[in-house]
Amino acid sequence: MPRLDRLSTLIARFSLTVTPAREAVANLGICRAGKDGAMRVSLTPHESGRLGLGCDAITARLDWGGASNPLLAALPERVEMTVETGSETASLLRVFAAEASEMRCGAGPVLDRLGEVIVIRLLRAEIARGAASPGLLAGLADPRLGRAIVAMHDAPERAWTVPDLAAEAALSPSRFAELFAGTVGRTPLAYLREWRMTLARQDLVRGDRVQAVAHRYGYASAEALTRAFRKIHGECPMRIRRSAA
């Protein structure tokens, strides 16, 4: 069975930017090697979080879709990873620190790309640890549920049913529904609807027509999309499209 890629589709949907910033407004920090010979990278993905590093650090502001990004929304208040100085990740952190400190020509795009790699490695580590509370990361960490979630991410337009998704997870429909709700914190079809509406909002902000967005994500009409969109976002999709114009 091929190795499951839990992150690529999610990551591709949200553009990431990184800007050097003071610790007071930063949400990404890299502590240079201390006496123990290790480096540390910290991310506080929510607005309420504060780094509070207490070390010689490079700090930056990372923007990656905010609350609309389900990966960021699923993370705890603080995500940390300790890195041995001789490792591949430590080399990556050192390059990031040098670019952020010197800000030479082209530093902006370099920081964006390095920041994305750093965040992916943090996410991998968080998934490998296993989430302590229900949510998307807990679902992705489960090898059975992860396959069903990735299937929804990859084909949001498909008319998924619980039996279809259960087959992806190689579970009975009843066991799948129970495990999904307990692990992710919502039913499979509620998660699918939220994912579709996240994508629909992105497309509407870009200026796509409501009817086109409806068909893109499996809705029979603009009216059907509007009902689902209003339930999730509390406003009309046409209003989102007009405000983005």
Word description of this protein:
- The protein is an alpha+beta fold.
- It has 2 domains: 8-129, no CATH class; 138-244, Homeodomain-like (Arc Repressor Mutant, subunit A, Orthogonal Bundle).
- Helix content is 53%, strand content 11%.
- The chain is built from 12 helices and 5 strands.
- It has helices at residues 8-12, 70-74, 88-102, 107-129, 136-141, 143-154, 162-169, 173-184, 188-205, 210-216, 222-233, 237-244; strands at 17-20, 28-31, 38-43, 57-63, 79-84.
- A 5-stranded antiparallel sheet has the order 1-4-2-3-5, with helices on one face.
- Strand 2 and strand 3 (38-43) form a beta hairpin.
- Helix 7 (162-169) crosses helix 8 and helix 9 (188-205) crosses helix 11.
- The longest helix has 23 residues, at 107-129.
- It is globular.
- The protein starts with 7 loop residues before the first helix and ends with a helix.
- Residues 146-243 form the HTH araC/xylS-type domain.
- It comes from Thermohalobaculum xanthum.
- Pfam families: Cupin_6 (PF12852), HTH_18 (PF12833).
- InterPro entries: AraC_lig, AraC_XylS_family_regulators, Homeodomain-like_sf, HTH_AraC.
- Keywords: DNA-binding, Transcription, Transcription regulation.
